[in-house]
Design goal:
226 residues; three-stranded antiparallel β-sheet; globular
C-alpha cells in the first residue's frame, strides 16, 4: 500500500523515482555511503553533522533555510511527523496532507536534494531563495496538469512534458547549463505556438560564467530578444 501511494503521487516520474529511492534508502547520503565503504566518514559535507536522509532533506542548515520560506502550516506539520524510517515518513506525509500540499512537499524535497548535489559535487551553491523560487515555478507549471479532467483510456497515461500557451499566443522556453569540465556555459531559448509547432530558437555559448542565477537572467534576455 505504501509503495502504491508513492507511485500515485501526481508529479513527474523523475520525482516519483526520487521518492522511491528515498523510501528504499538508496539516496547517497553520508551514512549510506559510509555503510557501503564508499566514504571515510558519515558526516554531512555541508554542515559537518551526522548525515542521513532526514538530515539532508529536513535538518541540515541548508535544508532548514529552504523550508523556512515555506508556510508555517507545512513546516509545523512536517515537524510533528517523528517517524525516522524514510518509507514510513513518506507514507505518513502522503496520508495526512492534501494533494496541493503534498505536491509542494515532494517537489521541495527533490529540489533540496539536487541543490545539495550541485553544492557537493559541482561546488555550485544556490541561495535558499533560488531553490524556493524554483519550487514555486515548478509547482505552478504542474497546476494545469493536475486540474485537467481525467479521461479514462486504455494503456498507460502520459503526462505532457510541455504546457502549450493559449491559442494565438507564442510560448518561449529558456534554460541555461554549465559544463563541469570546460568552464563554459550556454543559454538557449525556443519558441513554439499553441499547437507545439516550432517557430524558432536562439542559443549562445559563454565563457567564464558559472553563476546559475546570472545564467538564468541571460537566458531570459535571450528569450526576450528572440
Amino acid at each position: 500500500k505504501d509503495w502504491s501511494a508513492i507511485w500515485k503521487v501526481q508529479v513527474p516520474s523523475k520525482i516519483r523515482v526520487f521518492l522511491w529511492r528515498l523510501a528504499r534508502l538508496s539516496l547517497p547520503s553520508g551514512d549510506i555511503l559510509h555503510r557501503r565503504n564508499m566514504a571515510t566518514q558519515s558526516s554531512c559535507t555541508i554542515c559537518g553533522q551526522l548525515d542521513s536522509w532526514r538530515h539532508s532533506l529536513l535538518e541540515c542548515n541548508m535544508s532548514k533555510c529552504v523550508w523556512a520560506l515555506e508556510s508555517e502550516e507545512i513546516t509545523e506539520h512536517l515537524c510533528k511527523i517523528q517517524v525516522h524510517e524514510a518509507k514510513g515518513w513518506l507514507a505518513e506525509v502522503i496520508a495526512s496532507v492534501s494533494h496541493p500540499v503534498l505536491t509542494r512537499v515532494v517537489v521541495t524535497l527533490w529540489a533540496i536534494w539536487h541543490a545539495r548535489r550541485k553544492a557537493i559535487h559541482e561546488n555550485l551553491f544556490q541561495s535558499p531563495l533560488s531553490t524556493h523560487k524554483f519550487v514555486e515555478r515548478f509547482v505552478s507549471d504542474l497546476e494545469p496538469l493536475n486540474t485537467q479532467p481525467q479521461v479514462t483510456k486504455s494503456g498507460p497515461s502520459v503526462v505532457p512534458r510541455w504546457q502549450p500557451p493559449p491559442p494565438g499566443k507564442m510560448k518561449i522556453n529558456v534554460d541555461a547549463a554549465v559544463s563541469k569540465n570546460s568552464g563554459t556555459a550556454s543559454v538557449a531559448a525556443v519558441a513554439r505556438d499553441s499547437t507545439g509547432l516550432y517557430l524558432g530558437a536562439s542559443s549562445v555559448v559563454l565563457a567564464d560564467i558559472s553563476d546559475p542565477e546570472t545564467l538564468e537572467v541571460l537566458a531570459c534576455r535571450k528569450g526576450l530578444a528572440l
